[in-house]
Each structure stands twice: as structure tokens, then as C-alpha cells.
Design a protein that fits this description.
9 helices; Butyryl-CoA Dehydrogenase, subunit A, domain 3; two-stranded antiparallel ribbon
């Protein structure tokens, strides 16, 4: 199985009077880049949440968004945080001693101070556990979405490989015709230039010509690289970088094939191969 680097998944859980929403998005990237956007209540769990994502994804730019919203109609049980109150009182006394004219904090000021009001420790533990559960479920959906997209990309690549193999198979039978046409042209020119035609000279020129345009090596390498592409796709896993390298090699052989061509049909075939390779390369950029 191969995976696309593009994917999306979401999930929702209710924890008491709080609704937890989670979203996973990803696009292609050279390496693995995981970014989190989470509320402060879950900040202490970010490292563990990140490890869960890294364990399931190899490449891609991943964005994980986690939000907390009050459940409609719910009534939240809030408690004063004694430690925050103690720190706030100490700071207030220090400020009063340093600057007596500053008015003291009102009850509303204290209640609105960050961290003074919060849920009970038990509900926070439940919230974290629910968050881990929701992320695991979202990662399962996320992997399935990336696998479906990867499967479609794999089918696309195999179709291009089949089209390239078909075109490569048409080139080799053309070579005897190309050499025969050159022999006829060379013989005709020699007859025009001199009264007698040296058969040995013709054979030497034909041998030199055949050596210059010999593309057996390029065709063999093209066939081998296309076979390797099929093998890598069948093996599955993290295939993006390997396939990207193979498309570079395919493009190199197609360029050499075009440069050696002295036949319009072979030249057109080489250009078609380059077009198919470019189509493959664009889609391979999205594979993990």
C-alpha cells in the first residue's frame, strides 16, 4: 500500500459540558513537518500528541487543530485554583508596597485573571484522555484517506508506465529501417559524386552511422527503470523519494534517446516519453 501526502480527517467528542473538535490536514512536503494548534488546557499534552502523529506519518506537512467549545445547554462546574490565587495575592501585596496609590484588585478582576477559574482536576484528566482517544480515531481516518488517494495515484502511475512500455516497444523494430534508409541515401549520393561506388566504403559509413545512433543501451535502461517503478509500487510503503529518483533516470534516458534520433518517428516517441515522465513526476511529488 502506498500513501499520498495529501489527506484530511476530523473528529468530535463531548467531555461533560465541553465539546472537543480535532482536525488533521496535510499537504506534500520534502520532510515531516508537524504543527499543532491547541488550547492552553491541553498544552502539557502536546509532546505526547505529537509522538502519536509522528508514529503514524513518514512525510508531509501536517497541521493538527484541536479546539474546545462549550456544549450547547451545558453547565460547566468551575473551581478556584488555590495556587494561582496565592501567587496573585503575593503579587498584589508587592505592588501595593511598591506603589501604594494603585487601587487593589476587585473580585471581577480576580475572577477574570487567567488560570484563577478552571475545571476540577478530574475533568481535566478526562479531557486529556478523550483528546488522545479522538486523535487516535482521527489518525485512523487520516491514514485511510491518504491510502485511498495513494491507491489512485498508484493506478495513474501504472497507466503511464504501461503507455511508456508500449512506446519503447515500437522503437527497436524501427532501427533496421532507419539504417537501410541511410544506406540507400548514402549509396545514391556516392553514385552522384563518383562513377564507381566502393562497397567497402559504404559498409564502413553504415557501420559508423549505426554506432552513432545505437540506442540499445538506452532502451534497455528505460525498460529496466520502468520495471523498477512497477516493483516499487507493488512493494508499497514510503516510495516517494525512490520514485522521484527513478523519474530523473527515465528522463535522462529519454533525453539521450532524442539526441541520438535521426528518425522523426523515434524523435516523436522520445518526446511522448518525456511528456509521460513529467506527468508521473508531478504526481510522485504527492506520494509519501
Amino acid at each position: 500500500m502506498i500513501y499520498s501526502m495529501t489527506g484530511y480527517a476530523s473528529g468530535m467528542r463531548e467531555v461533560g459540558v465541553t465539546t472537543l473538535n480535532i482536525e488533521l490536514r496535510s499537504v506534500n512536503h520534502r520532510y515531516l513537518d508537524v504543527q499543532f494548534r491547541i488550547p492552553e488546557e491541553l498544552r502539557p499534552s502536546e509532546s505526547a500528541l505529537r509522538e502519536m502523529v509522528v508514529a503514524r506519518v513518514q512525510r508531509g506537512k501536517i497541521e493538527c487543530r484541536i479546539g474546545l467549545n462549550p456544549t450547547a445547554g451545558g453547565r460547566q462546574h468551575l473551581e478556584l485554583d488555590p495556587e494561582t490565587l496565592k501567587q496573585l495575592r503575593a503579587l498584589s501585596e508587592q505592588l501595593r508596597l511598591a506603589w501604594p496609590s494603585v487601587p487593589g484588585l476587585t473580585a471581577a478582576d480576580i475572577l477574570h485573571w487567567p488560570g484563577v477559574l478552571g475545571s476540577s482536576p478530574g475533568s481535566m484528566d478526562q479531557l486529556r484522555e478523550t483528546c488522545f482517544e479522538a486523535l487516535r480515531a482521527a489518525l485512523d481516518e487520516f491514514a485511510a484517506a491518504r491510502a485511498r488517494e495513494g491507491g489512485r495515484l498508484g493506478e495513474f502511475l501504472l497507466e503511464r508506465v504501461a503507455a511508456m512500455e508500449k512506446r519503447v516497444d515500437t522503437i527497436a523494430p524501427r532501427m533496421p529501417q532507419v539504417i537501410a534508409a541511410f544506406r540507400d541515401r548514402l549509396t545514391a549520393r556516392l553514385r552522384e559524386a563518383m562513377t564507381g561506388v566502393d562497397d567497402e566504403r559504404v559498409r564502413q559509413e553504415i557501420a559508423l552511422f549505426a554506432g552513432r545512433i545505437d540506442i540499445d543501451e538506452e532502451l534497455s535502461r528505460l525498460t529496466a527503470h520502468l520495471g523498477e517503478v512497477k516493483r516499487v509500487l507493488a512493494a508499497g510503503g514510503t516510495v516517494g523519494k525512490r520514485l522521484d529518483f527513478l523519474t530523473q533516470e527515465l528522463n535522462r534516458e529519454a533525453n539521450t534517446l532524442a539526441s541520438k534520433s535521426v528518425d522523426m518517428e523515434i524523435t516523436n516517441t522520445a518526446l511522448e516519453l518525456k511528456l509521460l515522465i513529467e506527468q508521473m513526476r508531478e504526481q510522485i511529488q504527492n506520494l509519501e
